Amino acid sequence: MNSFANDETHSRTEAAEDYRADRMFLGAAIEPLGLPRAAADRVRFEGPDSLPSAFAVTAFASAAIGAAALAVSELVAAVADAPPVTVDRRLASLWFGMSIKPVAWTLPSPWDPIAGDYPAADGWIRLHTNAPRHRRAALHVLNCTPERSIVAEAVKPWSAEALETAVVEAGGCAAAMRTVAEWGAHPQGRAVFAEPLIAMEKVGAAPSGWRPMAARPLAGVKVLDLTRVLAGPVATRFLAGYGADVLRIDPPDWDEPAIEPEVTLGKRCARLDLRQPPDRARFERLISEADLFIHGYRPEALGALGYGEGIRRALNPSLVDVRLDAYGWSGPWRNRRGFDSLIQMSTGIAAAGRAWRGADKPVSLPVPALDHATGYFMAAAAVCGLALRLSKGQAISASLSLARTAALLMGTPRQGIEPKALTPADADYSADIEVTDWGAAHRALPPVRVAGAPMGWTRPASRLGLAPAAWGA
After folding, report:
1. By C-alpha distance, which of 131, 135, 368, 382 is closest to 246?
2. Residue 151 domain-assigned?
3. Once rounded to an integer, what is the mean pLDDT over residues 422-444?
4. Is residue 199 situated within a structural domain?
5. For residues 272 and 283, is the Cβ–Cβ distance under 8 A?
6. Total domains present in the chain
7. Containing domain of residue 374, as a range?
8. Cα–Cα distance for residue pair 149/158, rounded to 1 Å
9. pLDDT digit string, tens, across residues 152-197
10. pLDDT at position 168, please?
């Protein structure tokens, strides 16, 4: 590992603490994956950068990416010597933000104008209004027009928890700011802390003729991607980087223009309406032929569409099934909609950031670290599932949640200083031009190296819905 002695934001002692955090996070991730503890010795962390936060976000980012890459290394070990893994801490931090740098065009803001934090009568609440239906729900409860100053006045008389409950019951998304202690005492907090970081369940025999190639470990793997903002798309982007054929499926009315250039890298993106019989038949053919199914629906949502786990397993007994939820898979909020920024409010991360900085309002993480880390943990689970299917003929189902990932981050010592903000430099990006559907762009250099198996993507970022819903099309 590089010394931090010359970095003005770190002393040697602080560097050693960051190194221990890298290792601690990595160890916590590989244990539920079933990877041997000694495998972590193959991972090396390089670089001095540390994102400004109350928490060790750079170490978290580096370890999450390292865990996914280590899973790839273990998969390669089925056909060759297990290669070493090197994580660049600076690039890991960058990829937890935005990896794309447009040339002569700009990305739209990811936030709706009224989304954000508001002071209530007894604390703070965050309204998440990016989706039109969530915006309508919040405005209906507040009985006001969609102007930020008017929304702020409408929020003030409310108790934060009462408004949270009302917005959620109306079909919207909101989160009152709680402290770490309050979340620990909350029924959902207790439920989440009792869950594993990655729940891996072996579900039966699943023979497969597929075998990895050392230089392109996931070539020939078919990934059916039913995920949206943001963790799931990060997972499948990683899988595409090692050769997987990723087919993303969205409903006819869904778009996420602010992040499509970021997360569709390496994928083909199609649309299906699972309420229509012809599209259902096509979806069932796709799932029957897939190796991996990655999805981010709430616990009962796919079942309501007629595609619960039993049906999926009947369609494809060898399927490696990886699923994501926001608030966890048990507890009273297991079906609650949620996003990274809301989880930070609920779990105490934003309150801890406020105390750390001495601010008078919530202070969130500098990047959506819960989304990104969970995405890489999902990718690791998927690759480990492939390895288990290959070695023992067993299929797996894996379950992860943003709230449980938050618990891992919160379980480390807080940072005692505020490092400088990470400023991207030209050297962080490939000189090659990526010709996206929006225009030319540069992509950040890969944040990790698996020796002999370089990460790279054969398809540029593309708009949703432009590809046919078929493999290899």
Report:
1. 382
2. no
3. 96
4. yes
5. yes
6. 1
7. 12-107+192-328+366-450
8. 15
9. 999 999 999 999 999 999 999 999 999 999 999 999 999 999 999 9
10. 98
